Give the backbone structure.
Amino acid sequence: SYYPPCPEPDLTLGLQSHSDMGAITLLIQDDVGGLQVLKGDTWVNVQPLQDAVLVLLADQTEVNKCTPFLSTFSQ
């Protein structure tokens, strides 16, 4: 997830950009937001939706050659 710069970066935790290893990832977002997905060469903010579950396709979906879908790259 993307967050604005922290005034005390030694105290921060987070993930670098990545794709997930499973088949799908289910995310229940809070109202803070911060999730971004890679669309082409641009990071796009994912707006949180109340009472929604976000489904991201992961690496095992891409390995299945019977599907045209690619794994989601996020941060």
About this structure: Strands lie at 18-19, 24-27, 36-39, 42-45, 54-57, 73-74. Residues 19-74 form one domain.
